[in-house]
Amino acid sequence: MKGFLVISILGVVAMLAEIFKFKKILLPLVVLGILAAYTLNFMEWEHPFSISYFQNMIAFDKVALAFTGVILITAFFWFILANSTYENEPHMVDHYALVLFAITGAIMLTAFTNMTTLFMGIEIMSIPLYVLAASKKNKINSNEAGFKYLIMGSFASAFLLFGIALVYGATGSFDLNEIRAYIASNPGNMPSFFYAGVIMMLIAMCFKVSAAPFHFWAPDVYHGSPTIITALMSTVVKTAAFAAFMRLFMIGFNGINETWTGILIVVIVLSLIISNITAATQTNVKRMLAYSSISHAAFMLMVILANVRSNLSVNAILYYSLAYSIGSITAFGVLNAVTKYGNENFEEFNGLGKRNPLLAVCMTIAMLSLAGIPITAGFFAKYFVFTAMMTTSYKWLLILAVLTSAVGVYYYFKVIIAMYFKPATNEEPVEIDMGGKMVVVLTALITIIIGVVPSYIAEMFSN
Amino acid sequence: MLAGSLIIFPLIAAILVFMAKGKGARNLALGFSILQFALSLVALFQFKHNPASHHLLLNCTWVKSLGINFAVGLDGFAMLMVLLTTFLVPLIIVTSFKNTYDRENIFYGLILLMQMALVGVFMANDGFLFYVFWELALIPIYFICLMWGGENRGKITFKFFVYTLLGSLFMLVGLVYLYNNSISLAGTKSWAIQDLINSGRSLGESQQSIIFWLIFIAFAIKMPIFPFHTWQPDTYVTAPTQGTMLLSGIMAKMGTFGVMKWLLPIVPLGIEKWGGIAIGLSIAGVVYGSCIAIVQKDYKRLIAYSSFAHVGLIGAGILTATAQGLQGAMLQMVAHGINAVGLFLIADILLRHTGTRDIDKLGGIRSMNGNFAVLFLIVMLGAVALPLTSGFPGEFLLINGIFQFSATAAAFAGLSVILGAVYMLRSYQSIMLGDRKDSNITFGSLDGSDKVVLIIICAAIIAFGIYPKALTDITEPAVKALMQNLK
Question: Of A272, A389, A398, A453, which to mutate for an interface test with B (greatest number of B Cβ within 10 Å)?
């Protein structure tokens, strides 16, 4: 909770930086603030004193704290990475404030216990992102991205609200635990519009995590937005959306699995097939990463589908989010440096192995991790999904997951092949600032470290 | 502790070599690989002295809640394969001395990393650890082929990678299924090999069949076995010589070794039901590979196909699950590993000295360099399994084992010996004997490093041909134990 407060205050402080002329020290301030938030968050983990706040609107239980931790770690790296992009940007202060507000919304999503806080969290997170996506004012792609994201996002929010209203109509409560209790005490006795409400909420959440067939916004938005904002969307936002998805369906609607599992299977199958096949045909690395993020969403949804012994699922999603976020930060960091002067096509990576060996190695590690090769974090992430699925009756989904993973290797390795095998179109070395280099190397190292020693995160929730 | 150091040492060596500069890297790599060989000899001494010694086992917790342990150990099979690996890697490094590669430190570092993964695969006693090493072995060899390979390497190495990765993912699904069904002594799920074996055996025939195919596909692709072999010839030809040696000399053995340790004892009913078909496929590959080898013009490609045929025979022998088949397979794995390195080195020497590997263009080299002719002859005879060369006892036992399974299968497998003699002798005749076909081609004296490697290989071929007992002594108890386990 304290971490949450620190981040929201930080957002307000960032807005004042222009007026009180401390723009120069804003970045150190923000980074220190995030570190402070992380420390407070960690202390709360060690000594929880009050779990729920504001009449049960929000509850920072251990699950929420763990996901907040993941978000704060990624945010920390993100800000250092973003420095080089925003250094000479006249509206830097506004950008920082918007990002901090988006993070506030994201943290809220990890901890909501009430449907109103769920809705508020989603809006607080999304509205800054609509603006940020369109922040390259004179680029038509960026405008398109912002506009598309706004329209699609509002559409999803409408679905969510409608769903919430229907569920409220049936159960008489916004509180997740009360809804759960109500379902348990009236088995098979719910009005049909309640189920319609649940399914509408499912659809809205699938929009937010960009699972097929609700993914149409993702490639264009990822492609059009400034690279650094895409990095934010595919890490912090993804983690938060999944934390919310998990909370909503594994706590709130746990009692009526059979209503939503069927739809979820269709979503997963479509996501796996569409994303991987489309990603393989992309020529633009950013679009490829966008489609691949849909496939990762499908993997995380599988854990929610498996929904076995909840601690196992929470561990799996937590580990997956962390592995995916860290890998993405590396990938986008390198992408940002490589494509500074050109477009984002695969050709830009040609000969990177010679032009900047360090970046090439880090990118290789990130790609191996996203493809799920041992000993990187991505492998354990996939492995946890496999073990979770093995205990369900949907084992056949695993075969599909394996086949589509092999397709995944194809497009991730296209980057590696370009870096080491294709001759460089442009011989000059790729420059990256000190902060960016540090982030890329550190995240690549973390990918390896949590891939070799996964126990700490994988055993976070043991009962 | 000794067991652990066999894996850790090459890892540390690889990191040090990565950091080395210039020519220092190759000498450093050679030094480390020789030390590693010495280390495995120490292990062999310990093994001979007391096979149950705790020095040969290591078991520490990796991920406790998931029952994953870092459990490695040396039984007879693993001991022999580790010795083969540590024996071949220094030779492979020496063979590279006449080639110039850019970024040498990365090249040799990757070879040592590969050695670590290979040793890990052979020693793992934990299903999860086995899988991790199995995948880990793929990454260095992929980069070796991608960065230093020949023409069109991007596409070819990529096909190789996706093929093998797809296979291993199926294996992972199979292993996770076994793990989910396992119960250790403590009552929890466990990845330990014995628990996985118990888990597999408790399943019914239909489930065992599914597991059999899930796991077998991974091994079949790695060996490779017909019809999963299409990645192999192109990859062997395109890879740099040292990469090819690693691939065919050691990496192909990962598949055969895997069948022996991770498939036979786990799904006996699956083997009973589907083993026949798998043996049929292997033998079909043997005949098919040999026939294609006969018509090859490129000598390296010819050896690639012959390698495919030989490994197919080993696979068939193992799948019969007879003592002769298993023992023969172990012998043949060693013999073929040594032979393959020799043959691919010869292909490399031919290319370096004459600028071509085309069998039709070469000729009369014996008259230009008699020493090379003799060494080539010995290696070639080892490959056709002449009595008193290392290829013979293994091949004899393998065909013996297959005969116990089915006489027809043995007849077809026997064809491979004849066909092998055809393509090997014909190519030798065309390259070495007769008159020079192209007067521009000259062949000077051998380089020192090549000579040393070829002499060591020839000595090994003859020594193990005359006294195969040195090898069978190591594996005998393990074969017995495995046969006991299969009953």
Answer: A398
